[in-house]
Design goal:
This protein is an alpha/beta fold. It is built from four helices and seven strands.
């Protein structure tokens, strides 16, 4: 059977390049009590998103465990293959911040990142990626997300 024109065209294009990990990090231990950075995943599929995040954090030591809220992720596998090892995922249902992820490394302790939801508008996400530390007395990721949304969704006063 001969390939169709569509199959030939697709094979000429080749596979898509991997998406760049959308991550901002503060220097380690520079943010006591705050977030160590922000992560803006492309989807809510943790099995697809976590390997790229862990590989982007390769310089902070081998990530062995993550802890995150189940509210943002419809399916959290217990173990996720990343490179040559597995990362164990733990989760919580409620009474904890749903918009953060803690990544644990045996060598270098842990990092806590603000999770910018995948559906966030680019302007809002850019603002959040540049301000992963709680600001203006906002103590939680949810409060920081609400501030950013209000900032960019607020009506603009225009002279009439």
């Amino acid at each position: 059977m001969e390939p169709t024109a569509d199959q030939v065209a697709l094979s000429a294009i080749g596979p898509s390049p991997p998406l760049r990990t959308r991550l901002s990090l503060a220097p380690y231990a520079a943010v006591p009590g705050g977030f160590d950075g922000a992560w803006w995943p492309y989807s809510r599929n943790l099995a697809d998103e976590l390997p790229a995040l862990v590989e982007a954090l390769d310089g902070v030591g081998t990530i062995t465990r993550v802890l995150l809220g189940i509210g943002l992720w419809p399916d959290i596998p217990h173990r996720i293959s990343v490179g040559g090892h597995f990362v164990t995922a733990g989760w919580f249902v409620s009474d904890h911040e749903q918009h953060e992820i803690t990544l644990c490394s045996y060598r270098d302790g842990f990092r806590t990142l603000l999770i910018v939801p995948p559906t966030t508008e680019p302007d809002t996400a850019a603002w959040l990626m540049n301000r992963p530390v709680p600001v203006d007395n906002s103590g939680t990721a949810t409060e920081l997300l609400a501030m950013a949304t209000a900032r960019f969704d607020a009506p603009v006063d225009r002279p009439q």
